[in-house]
From TrEMBL:
Pfam families: PmbA_TldD_3rd. It comes from Stutzerimonas zhaodongensis. Residues 217-437 form the Metalloprotease TldD/E C-terminal domain. Transmembrane segments: none annotated. InterPro entries: Metalloprtase-TldD/E_C, TldD/PmbA_sf. GO terms for molecular function: metallopeptidase activity. This is TldD/PmbA family protein. GO terms for biological process: proteolysis.
Amino acid sequence: MDARRHFEALLGHLENQMQAGEGFTLEYQAEASDFIRFNHARVRQAGKVQQAYATLALYQGERHGEFELALSGVSEDDQLRLDQSLQRLRTVLPTLADDPYLRLNREAWRSETAAGVATQDSAAAISQIVEASAGLDLVGFYAAGPQYQGFASSWGAFGWHAASSFNFEFSLFHENGQAVKSNYAGERWDAQAFASKLAFAREQLEHLGKPAHKLQPGAYRAYLTPAALEELFGLFAWGFSAQALATGGSPLQRLFAGSASLSNKVTLEERIEGGLAPAFTREGPRQPLRLLSAGQPGERLVSSRSAAEYGLLANGAGSGEYPLSLRMYGGELDEREILGRLGTGLYIGNLWYGNFSDLPAGRLTGMTRFATFWVEDGRIQAPINTMRFDDSLFDFLGPNLEALTREPELLLPNSTYGARQTGSMALPGALLSRFTLTL
């Protein structure tokens, strides 16, 4: 299926169906993805998913409704589905009340991007995974392929985005049941980069056979990998939402109010270039935003509804006002010097089951898992059993942040619920002078 041609055929048909006083927006999402599951370093399940969906929104004055429909990929059949959805919306809209915060972008904007649309060589990647992990108890999930997103409106807006990426999430299990978890993701598979990832995971796996080092609750020096930071950032990144800040519900409220601060090492941006997300939302073209600058609060994510309700200027953020391509600037820490700079403390590879223990105070809690190690004099000594952490982001991203690694790592979401996601984070690792474990 030619996704672009399919989308344009639906759009052209819909434009011809409009009646006086009506307007529409049409969102389109499609993918052609390979999904491969591994167990004991062998392919156990392989499949390919091709799917497309559309969301039609109809507007009559200040009234609006939307309908999501699955598509077949055959233009004639899908045009009929679109007509049926349009008739349902025409029946429903007269029964709805006016929307007081409806602020449609009626500009005739245009945005077209094609990020890494080259075909993924899944066969070569799978062959390397199987060969390189022979003899290991590797469990993993590989997803790859092109993704497409489109948007158009009856006011002349048109957006098209095509991107291709891969995401391989895997664990190496020790015979004692412990595991090292790792992830390799990007736009193009690099055999050398994967070999390096796997070699590092093997090195950690050897330490899992040692007796665990028992820790008492308390504060310890710690190094958090980019994957561990991703769990934390995923918890509070929605705090840049204009709606959350305006209603006092953001975990970053104290920062934007000026009653708390972060380290000047922390600079965070919502980017357009370099990410895999479209350069647009249904709100219009996205804007590059400096969310944090040297620890100081910057811009917030503002949708049209928040702009209307709180007297702000919209900047293309989606209705959820969540960053789509978050990037944190790196620092001066060389990856080869991580253990030496840590000295004695915790090497934390992953965190999970994260949640807020005190949202207004920005306190986060969760569990360590998957190869957290005790380090002495710059050398890994033993694994640490699962423990609970509880710490404030104003501490571990504030005075307790000693250094950041130089190169942020691209992290892609592993969720495939409904469809593969196009959001991303690019995060460095973080060396902390103290990180609090409670149980």
